[in-house]
Specification:
Keywords: Coiled coil, Nucleus. The chain has 5 helices and 4 strands, in the order αββαββααα. It is mainly α and about 170 residues long.
Amino acid sequence: MIVKDLVQQMIDEDGVISVEKCGNINIYWCFKSQTLQTLYDSSEMLKKKIQDTEGDIATCKQELEKTLQLGRRQKFTVGQETYIRDVLLEQRKKTLEEIKKNSTKLQKIESIRWDAAKIQDKKQMVQLKKTQLEKITDNIEILVDYLYKKFFLQPEQIRKEFEIPEEFKEFADV
């Protein structure tokens, strides 16, 4: 099975092996010239990518040298508009502060705003807590009843000893 997968990979992805179906037999072949041509094409493509990348690097180096020579200017022009660096930095600072304030306001609003999904989630959570509370109170009542029947203790004494509130006193004679 591993050999079959390897051969299929060499056919599909690499193009190293060629296959032809003749009747009910698959014929596989690989010519040296075909492999060499594939390698040559790959090398030419890589050489072209290297040249393009070297050209990009040279352009970036020229722009960097130009920027380093000129330094940061307080006034600069983009298109037909002239900008002052300090004014833009101050505007940026104010904008960032405003964004921060507004995002905190938005978080506060989102935390107190109720939508249908949030209401449904809260309902499910309350229902779950109610079910858990009912199980706990039932278990307490079962334990009180067990102690009452096993040791002949009065339920009031048990509740007083374990500091169980009187609200749980529903079924005294179950």
